[in-house]
Amino acid sequence: MAESIKPPRKFRPEPFSYHEVVELEIDSLSNLGAGVGRMLLSGPSSEEGERNWVIFVPFSLPGERVRARIWKNESSCSHADLVEVISHNSSRQQPRCSLFTTCGGCQYQHLDYQEQLRWKQQQVTELLERMAGISHPVEKAIPSPEPWNYRSKITPHFQKPRPDRDLNIGFLSTGSRNRIIDVPQCDIAMKALNEALPEERLRIQQTAAQGKFRKGATLLLRATSASVHTNPREVVEEQVGDLKFRFLAGDFFQNNPFILPAFVDYVAGEAATSNRFLVDAYCGSGLFALSLARYFESVAGVEVSESSADWARQNARQNNLENVTILAASAEHIFEQVTFPADRTSVIVDPPRKGCGEDFLQQLFSFKPQRVVYVSCNPATQIRDLQAFNANGYSLCKVQPFDLFPQTKHLECVATLERTPS
Fold first, then answer.
1. Tens digit of pLDDT for each residue in 84-121?
2. pLDDT digits (tens, 9 = 90+) for 280-316
3. For the chain, which residues make up each domain, given as ranges?
4. Among the listed residues 310, 273, 308, the one whose alpha carbon sits nearest the alpha carbon of residue 292
5. Architecture of 1-92 per CATH?
6. Catalytic residues
7. Where are the alpha helices (DSSP H) in 252-392?
8. Is the dihedral of CA 63, 64, 68, 71 positive or negative?
9. At the topology level of CATH, where does 117-146+257-419 sit?
């Protein structure tokens, strides 16, 4: 039965009215972390027949029967809020954080960790089949040694202070693009960050009370073995295996140090076959280029950011890696300076969430490296790109998920590809 609440102006009224409550079975999880249920609906005409309508219900779990309140209809699916779990999945657990379902940072705190891993593996399998038309086994997801308190970096936000409301310092609310939830502590942040957070929050609150903020801002807390750093321009140091990496505190660096050594070792094992040369095509401050240098005769790290390339060069010198060269190149000319023989070369690709650009892929395919290890924090864009690899003579050898982000929908995935002999 629908509630008598006025719908938003652009609300699509079919097939459900605004805030209509439906009862349905949940049969899977989407790669965005929501429960997926289906309802059989009759078409508006006898010719259309019945439709198996998809409804996404966050915080519900496969095998559960739930009541959910519709808030959006799209052309092929609906979105609903969870009202009640009628029958529970046996893997449902009590979330550790009281802000779970309100704060948008976590999606899976209510699901047993081993089940999180199983569903993430299954989601990669389904993405491969549906997006790329590739049927290929996906390895079991490698778990994080620490499923809680693992993040070494957090970036709480706050909006422009106003006298008529509390100053919330935290993260975006679930389902919102601008509402901030106040987060005094975070259960997936390292303990050192949670210990430093109250002082940083107090500093912001006191400064706001003095009227010194004319707009909102994003804070930084990054933990290293030395300290917790809050200045994005401060030089920090991370150790991975026996190597030390220096970079700016605000720059990107993988932020689960507990799983990082195993992650890097796996990438090394996939890249270091019989090939003598390595290209790290998105090298940043040099994590893969430097970590894999001992396996190769010569390594070229390529980076479009001159400042990141400088850090990678410094890190190579600091770690006495004389076989590593760091090249700064624009995105359009990323392989022009690489002189390695392609048939003896492995390439590591670790792009941002949006995946590889078309220009980059065409250069890579023109270079024709023998082996490519594609590392991605977004399996959806990675699998989209795998279609292009398939069309350009590369076959998929192995797909290995790594759970760098327990309790969340996010996942790191490593795909190994080899050029098919022509």
1. 999 999 999 999 999 999 999 999 999 999 999 999 99
2. 999 999 999 999 999 999 999 999 888 899 999 999 9
3. 1-92, 117-146+257-419
4. 273
5. Beta Barrel (2.40)
6. 377, 412
7. 260-271, 287-291, 306-318, 358-367, 379-391
8. negative
9. Rossmann fold (3.40.50)
